[in-house]
Amino acid sequence: MLRAPPDSLFPFRHIHKPNSLLRTRTTRICCKASLITNSDSFEVGRLIGSYGFMNITSSSGSPLGEDTEYSSGDLGRLRVQDVGEGSVKIRLYDGRVSQGPLKGTPVVFKVYPGQRAGGNEADMMAANELNAHLFLQNSSNGICQNLAILVGGFETKTGEQWLAFRNHGKSSAADYAKVMSEKVSRNRAAGVWNKFEQEETIKRRRYFVTKLLQGIMRGLAYMHDHDRLHQSLGPASVILNTITERDAAYLVPRLRDLAFSVDIGYSNLEGDPGLLSEGLWRRASTAGAFTPMEKRAFGISDDIYEAGLLLAYLAFVPFCEAGIMDGLSLQRLLESTFQLDLGATRDYV
């Protein structure tokens, strides 16, 4: 069964009964959410993959949080900053709902390690992600199609937290960029040169990337409108239902990975910030944001800054040869070399 986190990490008042639905209630909005919390209601399939987080202990003026997602290979390219791998490693599995009204629904399991493997941080991240999805899915405005949908979850005997999300696709924006950049490299290596075909490919890619960015911004705007920051926005945190550019009309990007999401409701900003958001509010204080209104504005601008870096990533990487540019190198180029001067960046490009 899914263990209810401590009240300090899980602000909903909750009632939890074995083999029953988890019902939640918040003081801001009277709402109910039903999750499948019985492990017997799921079937677990193959391991899809795993990923983790990196901790940037020092950086040259980067306003990003201390916890940022990385993909394999990124650490070796970050030479200027002091970087270490986070202690929490996430595993992803295929699966489906095996009984009940949602029987047959495909899901992706996101598995947080137990305390013995991931420490208290893993439990805090799992509780925070659960809390964020419950709140956002309980909105009176309905569920946003640009956010991943939580179906349920459970805890194993070893303390692992398994969160089950609807399977709307397994490829991320990072996977899309990698596939497209490799395609550019293959075409150039093969000497493929058809001007008309190349122009059509670029048009399709621009349209796909534009629609991808529109979906990302809609998802982020929805979160901000509902008093939530993402705080871990990057190419790996955007899941896609297709990476085929000819199917761009059916593309629906969805934001995932809300483990570092922050509640920016005014009542929360006046209380204890919580361990996972300490870094954000420390940077806010350094920037001179002290009142709840100032802190809220700083937090939203911090998310928008991350969205801007993601925009730059998607504007460059899918159009470049493989290995020419990556997210960390691009961020360092924008922040250190060009000092965030967009005019100078355009001249360089």
UniProtKB/TrEMBL annotation:
GO molecular function, one term: protein kinase activity
Top-level taxon in the UniProt lineage: Eukaryota
InterPro entries: Kinase-like_dom_sf, Prot_kinase_dom
Stretches assigned to the Protein kinase domain: 42-349
PROSITE patterns linked to this entry: PROTEIN_KINASE_DOM
PANTHER family tied to this protein: PROTEIN KINASE SUPERFAMILY PROTEIN (PTHR36796:SF1)
Name of the featured protein: Protein kinase domain-containing protein
Provenance organism: Prunus persica
Taxonomy of the source species: Eukaryota, Viridiplantae, Streptophyta, Embryophyta, Tracheophyta
